[in-house]
Specification:
Order of helices and strands: HHHHHHHEHEEHHEEEEEEHEEEEHEH
CATH topology of the largest domain: Aminopeptidase
Radius of gyration: 25 Å
CATH superfamily of the largest domain: Peptidase C15, pyroglutamyl peptidase I-like
Shape: globular
CATH class of the largest domain: Alpha Beta
Largest sheet: 7 strands, mixed
Number of helices: 13
Helix content: 25-40%
Distance between the termini: 84 Å
Number of strands: 14
Strand content: 15-25%
Length: about 425
């Protein structure tokens, strides 16, 4: 029996319209609830991030992403939008750093447009409420992870076998970090992230031939590391590369090659203002060592002329000696049976990425054949007269010079390390 057989045509039309409108409503189990912006995303509303985005031309990234999301007609289509636009942001940031495409007013070596544009995208995604279909909280988390991975270069690590001239390419893998301590100075840049953008996809000349550098950037968030972002990104590549190094920002005026990494989180707040004080959480904790060590050729690196900043072989750690309860500093590395409290690079996420990457190297059976470890760069400092976050500008000539010199010196450190492999 048709809907209109016992009712007037007008009522029948109303009924059909009502049924169609009800059919368009997603089931309760698939509804979407927008979530609040994170602590990290809330900093977007401060003046310096807005100026960084405007002066680099990256202020349009998040609005364009939001419009693309609104056009998605299904979860699958939304996932494709997220990955495609995340990868496009990474490529745009790399291109900008390497002299391709528009740069805006900021110097090309600046890593901050990528960081703040990504946060704009994750905030849009977190607050997005699609009208054509529902997205559960679980699926929203999956979309955010996909966006993070795509916009950090995690998906785009790829090594061609030969260069354009037909030469066999060696393979180098480098990681950097987002800016951090943003509540201390929201203008801050991270030279390790800037280095990742400047070197991604480039080729360095070594004594053993050309070497292709691929890079990725990681968040300064404890929970992402506990969820395995480092291992998930690096596991497939470590068996295939000739050298790797994780990089982060360390002390003023110097580079450090960190000899030893410790299995301890010291609790310093991350970019979400969360603290974690515990043993570094890894899979199979029963086989987890307290310490891992670099296999980078540190002797050759520290003795080479790589740039204007001195480079040190840092052997110091903080440990609780076996049978004791109080931590002590050991300038020459850990003693047998001790418990880690600080690696050479401390007990924050720079130490943790070094620990995780070198532990993964060892668990893959690569300790004796794969050079890898951690490099701490100098702190990136603003110029005299521009040090007050409340009144300072987002950039200055000394700030840019320091960042460019750090990037150039990392490139030379990589070349030296590759030369030492022969």
């Amino acid at each position: 029996m048709s809907l209109s057989s016992n009712v007037s045509p007008r009522l029948a039309a109303i009924g059909v319209t009502l049924l169609l409108s009800l059919a368009a409503v997603p089931p309760a189990s698939a509804t979407t609830t927008a979530t609040a912006a994170t602590t990290e995303e809330q900093r977007l509303d401060r003046a310096a991030p807005r100026e960084i985005l405007r002066s680099s031309g990256f202020d349009a990234v998040a609005p364009e992403f939001a419009r693309a999301l609104e056009r998605a007609r299904s979860y699958g289509e939304a996932k494709r939008v997220v990955v495609r636009q995340g990868e496009a942001l990474w490529r745009r940031a790399v291109d900008r750093a390497q002299g391709r495409g528009p740069a805006g007013e900021l110097s090309r070596d600046d890593d901050r447009p990528l960081y703040w544009a990504r946060l704009g995208m994750t905030r849009e995604l977190r607050q997005w409420e699609p009208t054509r279909f529902g997205v559960s909280e679980t699926r929203q988390r999956h979309l955010i992870r996909a966006l993070e991975d795509a916009s950090r270069g995690h998906n785009s690590i790829s090594y061609p076998k030969k260069d354009a001239a037909g030469h066999h390419l060696k393979r180098v893998l480098v990681t950097g970090f987002d800016p951090f301590t943003l509540d201390r100075d929201v203008r801050i840049s991270n030279p390790s992230g800037a280095t990742a953008l400047a070197l991604d996809g480039t080729v360095i000349k070594t004594a053993d031939g050309p070497a292709r550098v691929e890079t990725a950037v990681f968040p300064v968030r404890w929970d992402d590391f506990a969820e395995g972002t480092v291992e998930r990104t690096l596991r497939a590549h470590l068996p295939r590369v000739d050298l790797f190094t994780t990089i982060s920002q360390g002390r003023a005026g110097r580079f450090d090659i960190e000899r030893t990494n410790g299995a301890w989180r010291g609790g310093f707040p991350d970019n979400e203002n969360l603290s974690r004080t515990e043993t570094v959480p890894v899979t199979d904790p029963a086989s987890q060592p307290q310490w891992t060590s670099t296999t980078l050729p540190y002797k050759e690196i520290v003795s080479a002329e790589t740039g204007r900043f001195p480079v040190y072989d840092n052997t110091s750690v903080t440990e609780i000696p076996a049978g004791q309860s109080a931590p002590v500093v050991r300038p020459d590395g850990p003693t047998a049976g001790s418990t880690a409290r600080e690696g050479g690079g401390g007990n924050y996420l720079s130490n943790e990425i070094a620990y995780r990457a070198t532990l993964l190297r060892d668990r893959l059976g690569l300790h004796d054949r794969l050079p890898g470890g951690h490099v701490h760069t100098p702190i990136l400092q603003f110029g005299a007269g521009n040090t007050d976050p409340a009144t300072g500008k987002i950039t200055d000539p000394e700030f840019v010079r320091n960042r460019l010199d750090i990037i150039a010196q990392v490139r030379q450190i990589l070349t030296t390390a590759m030369d030492a492999r022969r």
